[in-house]
Structure formats: C-alpha cells, structure tokens
C-alpha cells in the first residue's frame, strides 16, 4: 500500500499528476458537472485507500465555484482518509485578509474556518499574498515559496546586467530573496492603490541604477496587470533595457497579458499554480517537499 493517495480537483489535474508521480502515490481524478442552476456536482473516480490523502485544487477564477468544489472534495476525502492534507496552489481571497476600509468582511477568515470544518488536517499554499491570511487557519499550515524555481528559470536567460525590481514595498523581501539567488541587486518601487477604485500609481522618483539594464519585475500575482503596467511604464521612462516579469500566480484577468505586452514587457514567466500561456515553471517539487 502506498503511503499517500492524491485526489485532483479539475483545476489542478496536471500539477496533481506531477505531485502523485513524485510521491509514487495513487492518483484519483474527480469528475465535475455543473448543473444549469450553477451548482457543482463532484464525483470521485475511485474510492481512496484508508491512508493519507492529498487533495490538490487551485482556486483561480471562478473563485467561489472552485472553493465550494474544493470543500466538497475534502469532505468526501475525509470519509476515507486518516489525514487529509490540502494543497491550494493559488489561494483565492488571500488579499481579503484585513479590514482595509471600515465594514469590510475579512473573507479569508471565513474561508479558513470552512476548510477546518470540512476536515482539513493541514493546508499547503504557494506564495500566499500575505502570511497574515494563514493565521486564520486553526490547523497546521505551510506556505511554499516558488521563488527558487522562478529564479532558476530566470538564471538561464541571458540577461544584460540584471536588476530585480519589486513593484511595491510589500514585495521588498520577495525581491531581496530573488536577487540573492541570482546574486544581483534589487530595488522596490513606491506603489499606491486607491482602495475604492483599485487604480494604482507609482509614486517613486527616478533611480540611478535602471538605465541600460535588463529588469526582472517580481510579484506574487498578476490580476488585472495594473501594478505591472504602471511599474513597466515608470521603468521604461528611465531607459531600462528589457523588462521580464516573474510571478507565482498569473491570473491575467481582462486581457491583462496583451496589455502587459503592449506596455513593453518582453516576457511573463509564472508557475503552474495557475495553468496557462505563461506558466513555464513547475513547482511540484516544492509541494512534494512540503508534504513529506
Ligand atoms: C498587491 O499587493 C499584489 O502583490 C499584486 O501586486 C497585485 O495584487 C496585482 O494585482 P493587479 O495585477 O490587478 O495590479
């Protein structure tokens, strides 16, 4: 009997396959049917063995649908498993981790309680927006960093005098870690987001280090692309060479990929927490390390 059984939700089939292969675990897929009224119906293809079960499902858009599907799979897995470890490669709602404006619901807290109530023993996430989000889970948690894998990919590109840039102060430590692996310098910009409209602007003044260099803009996620576009426009004005974007989660909503390319970005590199055109970096190895 293998030690683990992996159950994949429909949003992370490829990643689940890679994780199961590395763990030499049995892989069970789930069938998803959406009823005309929008309800999700999930059926596991096989009955899991009574051992440690790993559920893998990313909650990228449609986020609410994916979340309810994930909770449903976990509750079924709990009927069989002695322990249910849940891997959420992209955790939706992680940006709603505090009350920014009076009256706002901290939805991350609500979601955390739901994961516990359906029987999650431990939750593993990848580069969650902020570690505060994990504090709401009253179970074991682990945040996996995709930075080493992203940096390894970038290190193979032939970049000209590279400089790592974070589009905001909140990403400073991420940029620092990335730059350390590449053994290059880093800077961070001063970004301001209007909490009501969501619009961003860069408030930084010019930097001496930018002109003529290839830049790597590092972020945890791209949603609408607003942050990356504003940062790229700011950096291009200062006569940088090429701009590469390395991020863990590429949601790329509202035609963001085209808009980012139009702003002058040479290439977007993201991970397979969200499968798509830009997901060039596989993080299954890091997930396996967090499981065993
Ligand atoms: C913000 O603090 C995050 O790290 C990302 O920079 C942000 O969520 C990306 O969103 P968008 O692409 O819509 O600017």
TrEMBL record:
Ribose-phosphate pyrophosphokinase N-terminal domain mapped to chain residues: 5-119
Residues reported in the UniProt entry to bind D-ribose 5-phosphate:
193, 219
Cite the Phosphoribosyltransferase domain residue spans from the record.
149-273
Q: Which superkingdom? A: Archaea
Q: Give the binding site residues for Mg(2+) 2.
A: 168
Read off the InterPro entries from this record.
Answer: Pribosyltran_N, PRTase-like, PRTase_dom, Rib-P_diPkinase, Rib-P_diPkinase_arc
Q: What is its main location?
A: cytoplasm
Compartments where located: Cytoplasm
Q: Which GO terms describe its biological process?
A: 5-phosphoribose 1-diphosphate biosynthetic process; purine nucleotide biosynthetic process
Q: Which residues bind Mg(2+) 1?
A: 129
Chemical reaction(s) catalysed: D-ribose 5-phosphate + ATP = 5-phospho-alpha-D-ribose 1-diphosphate + AMP + H(+)
Which keywords label this protein? ATP-binding, Cytoplasm, Kinase, Magnesium, Metal-binding, Nucleotide biosynthesis, Nucleotide-binding, Transferase
The molecular function terms in GO held by this entry are: ATP binding; kinase activity; magnesium ion binding; ribose phosphate diphosphokinase activity
What general EC class does the enzyme of this chain belong to?
A: transferase
> Pfam families recorded for this chain?
Pribosyltran, Pribosyltran_N
Binding residues for ATP: 37-39, 95-96
Q: What is the free-text note on the cofactor? A: Binds 2 Mg(2+) ions per subunit.
- GO cellular component term, pick one: ribose phosphate diphosphokinase complex
Q: Which residues form the active site?
A: 191
Summarizing the function annotation, the protein's role is: Involved in the biosynthesis of the central metabolite phospho-alpha-D-ribosyl-1-pyrophosphate (PRPP) via the transfer of pyrophosphoryl group from ATP to 1-hydroxyl of ribose-5-phosphate (Rib-5-P).
Family recorded in the similarity comment: Belongs to the ribose-phosphate pyrophosphokinase family. Class III (archaeal) subfamily.
PANTHER family from the UniProt entry: RIBOSE-PHOSPHATE DIPHOSPHOKINASE FAMILY MEMBER, RIBOSE-PHOSPHATE PYROPHOSPHOKINASE 2
Q: What is this protein called?
A: Ribose-phosphate pyrophosphokinase
């Amino acid at each position: 009997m293998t030690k683990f059984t992996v159950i994949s939700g429909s949003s992370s089939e490829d990643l689940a396959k890679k994780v199961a292969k590395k763990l030499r675990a049995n892989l069970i897929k789930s069938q998803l049917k959406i009823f005309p009224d929008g309800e999700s119906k999930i059926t596991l293809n096989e009955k899991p063995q009574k051992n440690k079960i790993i559920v893998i499902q990313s909650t990228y858009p449609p986020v609410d649908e994916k979340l309810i599907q994930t909770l449903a799979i976990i509750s079924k897995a709990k009927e069989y498993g002695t322990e249910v470890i849940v891997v959420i490669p992209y955790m939706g709602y992680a940006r709603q981790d505090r009350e920014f404006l009076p009256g706002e619901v901290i939805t991350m807290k609500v979601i955390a309680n739901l994961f516990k109530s359906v029987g999650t023993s431990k939750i593993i996430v990848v580069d969650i927006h902020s570690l505060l989000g994990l504090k709401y889970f009253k179970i074991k948690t682990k945040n996996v960093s995709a930075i080493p894998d992203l940096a390894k990919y970038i290190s193979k590109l032939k970049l000209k005098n590279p400089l790592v840039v974070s589009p905001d102060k909140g990403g400073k430590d991420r940029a620092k870690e990335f730059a350390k692996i590449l053994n290059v310098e880093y800077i961070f910009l001063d970004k301001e987001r209007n909490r009501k409209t969501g619009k961003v602007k860069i408030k930084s003044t010019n930097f001496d280090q930018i002109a003529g260099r290839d830049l790597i803009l590092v972020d945890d996620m791209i949603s609408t692309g607003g942050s990356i576009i504003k940062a790229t426009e700011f950096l291009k004005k200062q006569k940088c060479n090429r701009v590469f974007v390395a991020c863990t989660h590429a949601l790329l909503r509202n035609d963001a990929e085209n808009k980012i390319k139009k702003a002058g970005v040479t290439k977007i590199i993201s991970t397979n927490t969200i499968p798509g055109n830009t997901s060039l970096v596989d993080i299954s190895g890091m997930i396996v390390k967090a499981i065993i």
